[in-house]
Design brief:
The protein has 415 residues and is of the alpha/beta class. The protein contains eleven helices and 17 strands. The chain folds into two domains: 42 residues; 356 residues, 4-Layer Sandwich (Purple Acid Phosphatase, chain A, domain 2). The protein starts with a helix and ends with a helix.
């Protein structure tokens, strides 16, 4: 009898427990079980769970200007064993580059094999690609007026070397049918890069790069535009932007090689092209290069519907990241300046909605000096550590760097 009573008691307890599990949601508000001593809703069949909103993600996109390699730079980086190492050029900007979620540079040289040459037809050692990657750069824009310095063969080899080093590349293609954009990912967000260079203006629609008319075959491998047919050319570029979006890019970066060399402010073509790009294309930031000096930066709003969804950061010219263009060679101190330009895009990963856009910049200055019987080059961030920079202490060029800092701030027009 006692065993039957015990068994019956156990059965009753079990029935009560099961009933509580299944009936409790019926007595809670809207079927929900709150967290104040209630059951875990994940363990309650049929319980309502409030959907959790996905938090926006902020993606910092950094971009530098022209990475050039004049012959004196190449000679300076040659090692005793005959190899080349450009690592020390980038040592001070490396922390900035690594800190960014996506880092982009404009390669204004080629990897066209030895003999290595500087201006007017650039061909740099392959080690430069590896050193740029080790610095932290992720994406490369190859569309510029020196991209064909070693012909189509050199342009294709440049692509090969960059990709072998892990870069996403826009501006040139291996096959004419290849995508004319590239995509990289950071924080789960896909960032697309679209890169185009100006053609020398012609009225017969032949493609001319850096003063040289190129064959139709070569033209098919490069991203370029003709100012004389701007609206038509922008429509063509917009097809690339749309394809980039269709491939999954949630943020699209436009990189234009445009403007006039050595001009400290954007010309009418740059201003018009930037505004029309923003008015007609779904882009999030515009970076520019070619003048070899800094130009102003600004937030530019769309003036019509159908283009950018928000105000767009525009850096009209990023100057020189590194080169041998300077006061001693061109009688132009402004060619020594560049910038680590940053666009900060805050975006909802699930919907692609951009909730905030910001921009800032750290100007840079290229120091060239002699030490130990060698010529040295270093890109100096013009930041709060300027006065304690060891290279400036060795070169004795601190005052020049300070002057460059003030000049850059005035030209850029942003904090």
């Amino acid at each position: 009898m006692k065993k039957k009573i015990v068994a019956l008691s156990v059965l009753c307890v079990a029935v009560i427990f099961v009933g509580a599990v299944f009936l409790l949601p019926l007595f809670s508000v809207d079927g929900r079980v709150d967290g104040s001593g209630g059951l875990d809703p994940d363990l309650v069949p049929g319980a309502y769970v409030e959907p959790r909103e996905i938090e926006p993600v902020s993606v910092t996109i950094l971009c530098t200007g022209d990475v050039m390699a004049h012959k004196t730079q190449i000679d300076a980086q040659k090692q005793a064993d005959g190899t080349y190492d450009f690592t020390d050029n980038f040592q001070y900007i490396k922390p900035y580059v690594e800190e960014a979620d996506i880092a982009i540079c404009n390669l204004e040289t080629t990897f066209g094999q030895a003999p290595y040459t500087g201006y007017p037809a650039f061909s740099s050692p392959d080690e430069l690609a590896a050193n740029l990657r080790a610095t932290g750069f992720d994406m490369v824009a190859t569309a510029n007026n020196h991209m064909l310095d070693k012909g189509l063969k050199g342009a294709l080899r440049t692509l090969e070397i960059l990709r072998a080093n892990g870069f996403a590349v826009s501006g040139s293609v291996t096959e004419p049918t290849d995508p004319r954009y590239c995509i990289a990912e950071a924080k789960g967000i896909k960032v697309g890069l679209v890169s185009y260079t100006y053609q020398n203006t012609t009225n017969d629609r032949r493609v001319s790069i850096n003063g040289n008319v190129v064959s139709n075959e070569t033209a098919a491998h490069i991203n370029s535009f003709n100012y004389a047919f701007l609206d038509e050319e922008l429509a063509k570029i917009n097809e690339t932007v749309k394809a980039c979006r269709a491939a999954g890019a949630q943020i699209v970066v436009m990189f234009y090689h445009w403007g006039e060399e050595y001009q400290l402010s954007a010309n009418k073509w740059q201003l018009e092209m930037a505004q029309k790009t923003i008015d007609t294309m779904d882009v999030d930031v515009i970076f520019g290069s070619h003048p070899h000096v800094l130009q102003q930066a600004a937030m530019v709003s769309p003036t019509v519907e159908g283009g950018a969804r928000h105000t767009v950061p525009v850096f009209y010219s990023l100057g020189n990241c590194i080169s041998n263009q300077r006061a001693e060679t061109l009688n132009n101190k402004y060619t020594e300046e560049g910038v680590l330009a940053r666009a900060i895009i805050t975006i909802k990963p699930d919907t692609g909605e951009v909730t905030c856009v910001d921009m800032n910049a750290t100007p840079t200055w290229v120091d060239r000096y002699k030490s130990g019987g060698r010529t040295h080059y270093a890109i100096i961030p013009l930041d709060e550590n300027l006065d304690s920079n060891p290279t400036l202490a060795e070169s004795g060029h601190l005052s020049r760097a300070r002057d460059a800092k003030e000049a850059a701030r005035g030209i850029l027009g942003i904090n």
